Each structure stands twice: as C-alpha cells, then as structure tokens.
Amino acid sequence: MENLVDLFCWEEHRKILTCRESGIPALQTFGICSNNRAGQPLHVHTHNGCMEIVFVVKGIQVYEAGGEVYNLTGSDIFVSYTGEPHSSGSYPENVCDLIWMQIRMEKGIPFFGLDESHAAYLRESLLALPRFFSGDAALRSMLTEAFFGLAEKSEMDRYMAEQKLVYCLFRIVQLSQKMIPRRTDCIEDAIAFIHANLGNPILLEEAADSCGLSLSRFKVKFKEEIGVTPREYINRVKIEKSKRLLEENCSVTDTALNLGFSTPNYFAVSFKKYTGLTPREYQERIRESDAERKEQSCQKAQKN
C-alpha cells in the first residue's frame, strides 16, 4: 500500500506547502486546491505517522475509510487517522475546493510552537476527533489566511500565520464537539424531492416549493448547507445514478432519457465533467474491469 507524501506545488489551481516551506516541523503538508473538473479516483493510500484533516470548502467529495463511504459537501470536515488507509473508492476526485493538512503526531516533534502541556493537550484532542463533522465559514477564512501567510517571506507574516493555524486546530476540535447539524429539515425535504424525481427534468421552482421556500431563498440556503448550487447537486446525483444504469448495459441515449436530460449530448458533456470520462469510455472501462476479474477468478480456480 502506498505511503503518499505530497510534494511542494504552486500552481494556479493547486498549491501545497511542506514542512520545509512552512517552517513547522509537525505540519507535513498544508494544501489548498480548486478542482474545476473531475480527476482520477484517489487510490488507497496512507500517510505514515500523520493524521489528515480535509475541509471541503465547496462542492462534493467522496471518501472511503474504515469500510465506510462518506459523502462530503461544503463546509464538511473529514478525518483520516494516523497511518489509516483511505481513498475515494471508485469515485473520481470531484469538482470541489479543498483545504487539507497532514499533521505529524509522533511525540518529540515541536508541535506548532506550543509548550509541552499545550502541545500534549492539542495532540490528544486531534487524535480523538470524530471521522466526519461540520466546519464553518470563519474556520474556512482563517485556514486560508494561515496558508497564504505561511507562504510569505516576512517573518512577521509567517509568525502570525502559525498562530492563526494553532487557533484553527483548536477551533476544529471545538466544532467537532458541537456536532452542528449538517442540514436543516427544509433542505432535507428538498433533497428527498430531488431523489424522488431523478427521472424528470427538475425545475428549481418545484424543489423550492417542496420545502416551502421562495426560489431566491432556496438557492442561497441550499448552497450554504450543501456547498453547491441546487442545479449542480441535481446534476451530480443524476450522474451517480447514470453510472449504475450504464453498468447495467443501458444505452447512453436511454440513460439520458431515463434521467431527464434534454439531449444525449448534454448528458455526455455533464457526465465527462463529473467523471473525467465520456459515458461510452466509462462503459468500456467497466467491461475491461469485469473481464479482468473473470480472468483472475478463472486463474485462481485453475490453481486450486
């Protein structure tokens, strides 16, 4: 199993600081990215000696760990524990914005400039974090300030950024203990309406009516709680449903019609945006995977 160590990167849509750039020995990786198109699935990997904390700024992202699948939306926080295998399973890295940290947890390493007692308290609190909980806008803003502050050359900026990051870590612990509800009842009602009507063209006015909100208020509240616009969420859910239909050998045209897409071409464009593949490429990959599994099964049977 791969031990994944991120390297320094400073590109338009992806920036990563290592402990060398940040000057913080316990901070193995601090990254920020904006994925504007789906990428390849994140394969099973570990971060030896580190726990990882991922903050989904906006969009949707799926992770698998401990035998469970976690669907993250805007402001959700996901934690993988020290040396724990995790991945995105069969799901691609989605269209989303992320901030993440890999924190070295072994004792004896200077821990964010804290004295021994405060370092021990924070380390133990982080190790006790639940897998999955909600962050907030203030945390997102402070994490972003801390990241870019650590990238500055000014000693004052870097010192202030480290203090902001320490605040963020304590704030993460505090938020995990509050366990803020991720969705209000009215948005849950809208999501239930969307899932019940996947086979139809879904009008946003109808989704708003289903939860008793005006259209403008519905759009704002939905994005606040889910992290994406209602239309983005609808398309994403339809694409996930289409993958199951395509795996069952449903044609591209029938799949598009069954899920209320206006044309097969619009469906194909949407599918590639969220998966990185065309519907036909996806079906071909599924066939190749099935054939490979059958061949491996036959070889195993012959050996026995």
3D architecture notes:
This protein is an alpha+beta fold. The protein folds into 2 domains: 2-178, Jelly Rolls (Sandwich), CATH 2.60.120; 185-288, Orthogonal Bundle (Arc Repressor Mutant, subunit A). It is built from 11 helices and 12 strands. Helix 3 runs antiparallel to helix 4, helix 6 packs across helix 7 (215-226) and helix 8 (230-247) crosses helix 10 (264-275). The longest helix is centred in the C-terminal third of the chain and has 25 residues, at 279-303. The protein is globular, with a radius of gyration of 22 Å. The mean pLDDT is 88.
Q: Which residues form runs of ≥5 with pLDDT under 50? A: none
Q: By helix and strand content, what is the structural category?
A: alpha+beta
Order of helices and strands: EEEHEEEEEEEEHEHHHHHHHHH
As a whole number of angstroms, the C-alpha radius of gyration is 22 Å
Mean pLDDT across all residues, rounded? 88
Name the CATH superfamily classification of the largest domain. Regulatory protein AraC
If classified by CATH, what would the architecture of the largest domain be?
Answer: Sandwich
Task: Note the beta-strand portion.
Answer: 15-25%
- Please provide the count of β strands: 12
Q: Number of helix segments? A: 11
CATH fold type of the largest domain: Jelly Rolls
Main pleated-sheet profile? 7 strands, antiparallel
